[in-house]
Each structure stands twice: as structure tokens, then as C-alpha cells.
Amino acid sequence: MLLLRVLLLLLFFALSSPAFAAERRTAVVDAVAKARDAVVNIRTEQIVRRRSSPFFGFGDSLFDQFFGEMMAPRSYKTQSLGSGVIIDAEGHILTNAHVVDKASKIYVALPDRHKELEATLVGKDDRIDLAVLKITEEADYAYLPPARSDDLMLGEQVIAIGNPLGLGHSITTGIVSSIKRRIPIDKSRSSIFIQTDALINPGNSGGPLININGELVGINTAIARQAQGIGFSIPINTAKRVMGDLINYGRVRRAFLGVVPGNVGASFVRSHGDAGVLVVELSADAPAEQAGVQVADVILAIDDIPVSSTEQFFSLLQTYTPDDRLKLSLLRGMDKLEKNVALTDLPQGYVLSYAVRVFGFSLQQRRQGLLIDNVVTDSSADRAGIRRGDLLAKVDGIELTDLAEFEKLLEDRLGRQSLPFLIVRDNRGYLVELP
């Protein structure tokens, strides 16, 4: 009887030993173990300042005109939570831009530390929804280097790690259902995502998507909260293209291709079976022209990602920098061609010359704002009734006060058809669409 008890005890300890647990160690467990030390929780603080009205129930804007002195300024803090992944030993963190939007303070919590560390914003791009942070405390940090996403396979298992609702590390698994899913971001932009069925919550935003080998293949983003059982991640190949600019310049520089595109007609799609964008205009000596692109070519895809509208064309092009190369898939007549293009910086003065060529007016900076300096005869501006001496107040709903603001705004909208312009004459405003 005693011998039987001893044997049972030995069997119990054998079954509960680390050796038995090791038999349950899967590839997912190994992948998480490899990546988890590089995943951080991000907490941001935003200082909101406003005046408080002594008149309960009335809007500040009305009473501010009459009781400004009685309305004491107040401030309060708001907080938001998200995730990020350390991508180098120096402590650079890749996350979503919306995670740190308008943050006055950024704190990160590492898995192996009991206190939060402060981080600074190095650079971000809201169009791509990517940001790079830097931990202020110098140390040798555990990190997960960007791998590649262009070799992902449909049905491949992937793992999302993040910080949903501030509860600490959360791990979800899924399979890849699309590697090039195009999702609209707003009325004028779309982006390409990896689509999986790994659950992604708002707190997971900015966290890593890893493959079964523990390699960083995407940055999770909660862009479709209403979607059940669907997760989206920014491909790491997209992130790698812009990370250098975010670190070195604090923003993503505008890459210059030198193409003004237009939409193809329905008859083209019916006859060819392909959608695309028509090359309407080529800038002389631009990268596209030097690569052999011609006016009237139809661009079918950029780096094998189909483009069927000017919106898709520009949304995809904005993920490239002047140091990148891309492949254009073209249709010329009945022949399909491929052209490799080396992108460059936007030429000096290109934006202002574009405004003259496309919209038909030039601007001059004056004390009272931006004045129409010249209107090209029979241009879009001329046909819309714009005159020399008119004041340009807004473009696309954004108020402008100097030429640099106009150039920056138009740079982000090059080739977009069409734009609303608010023109002021004799203290009266006129909204016109150009071209």
C-alpha cells in the first residue's frame, strides 16, 4: 500500500514537472516569447484648456463676447491608451499616429520594468497613421526589428500583441485573409492593410502583428471597430519605407513621380477588363518620363497593387519617399509593360507652378493675406470669375494666411480633382470648385 502511494506521488510530480509543460510548447508560444519584451504599453496625456462660463447651459462662444473677463480659463487632462513596438536598441518605438494624437505627454511601460518611462514624439504622418517615438532614458532596449510583409501567405497564422483597455499584454491569434486589402479612410483617401481574423481592440492599436517565427510583419490598427472578427494591420513594408523620414525629418517627404493622372472611362474598362488611371500629363525630365512612361499610358498597378482611380493612385504614392524605387505596370495600346522608377524630391517651386497650370492663378503674399496676383486667360479660375486682387481665404475648408501654408496644403493634394476655393471680394465670400 505504501509502495502504491509512493508510485502515485512520483507519477504526480512527473506529470506536473517542467518537462511535461515543455511538451505543450507550441510555435505560437515561441513566437510570443521572442517578441513580447519589445511590446510596450503607451499612455498619453493631453492638456485641454477652455474657458468656463458662469451661465450654466449656455455656449461659451455667445457669452465670451460679453463676459470674457468673468470666464476664468480652466484646464484638465485627458488620457488615452495604446500599444507600440520597440524597433531598435536605442528605444525607437513604432506605433499608430492616432495613438499619440495631440498628446502633451507620452509614457511607455515596458514588460520588465515597474515604472513608466517618458517618450518623445520623433515624427508622425496622419495620412499613413504611423508615428515613431523615442524613449528619453538611454539604455540598451530589447527590440523587434521590422521583417517583411510581402511574402505573407493567405491562410498563414499570425499573432497580434497589444494592450487592450490598459489591461497589460493581450495576445490574439488568427490567419491572414488578405495581404492587400484596400480600406477607405475618408472621402479622398484609402490605405492598403493586411486583413486577419485576429481580434484587434482600440488598445491594441500600434502593437505588432508577428508571424509564427516571431517576426514583425505589421502594425495593428483599430480602423473598423464595428467589424466583428476582422483585424487590420499596416504592412511592415509600408512602415519601413517611411520610418527613415519620420526619424530624420519628423515627417514623410513628398515623393515626386511627375505624373498628373486622370480616371479612365467605363468603355475602357469594358473593352480591356482592367481599370487604371490615365497619364494625362508628364512633367519634363521627371522620374516617370525618364523611366519611359508616356502620355496616354494607363497605369494599372504600383508595385503589383492595382489602382483604379486617381484617389487610389495618390493614396498609394504617399507611402513612398524620394529615396524609393517603384514598379509601374502599364497598358500602352494593347501592350502591357513594366517600368521601374526612381522617385525624387518635389522640385523647388513645383507646387506654385502647378497652381498656375491646373487652376489658372498665381498668388502674392500681402499683409492682408494671400492675394490673387494673376489669372490665366481662359483658365479654370478665369471661367469661374476669379479676378486679380481677390483674396484667397480657404482651400478645401482650411483657412490660409501665408504662402507656405498654401504650398504645404496643395502639396498634400497634388492631382486631386477638384478642390473648393473660398474667394473674398469686397468683404463677400464666393466658394468655387477648381478646376
Structure, described:
Helices cover 21% and strands 39% of the residues. It has 435 residues and is α+β, with helices and mostly antiparallel strands. Among the domains are: 157-249, Thrombin, subunit H (Beta Barrel); 255-345, Pdz3 Domain, CATH 2.30.42; 350-434, Pdz3 Domain (Roll). A six-stranded antiparallel β-barrel has the order 1-2-3-6-5-4. It is globular. 34% of the residues are buried.
Quickly list its features.
single chain, 435 residues, alpha+beta, Thrombin, subunit H, Pdz3 Domain, six-stranded antiparallel beta barrel, 11 helices, 39% strand, globular
Provide a brief overview of the structure.
This protein is α+β, with helices and mostly antiparallel strands.
CATH architecture of the domain at 157-249: Beta Barrel
Instruction: Report the strand count.
Output: 26
Which blocks of ≥5 consecutive residues have pLDDT under 50?
55-59
Mean pLDDT equals 86
The helix/strand class is alpha+beta
Q: What is the third-level CATH name, the topology of the domain at 157-249? A: Thrombin, subunit H
Gyration radius, rounded? 27 Å
The rounded distance between the terminal residues' Cα atoms is 96 Å
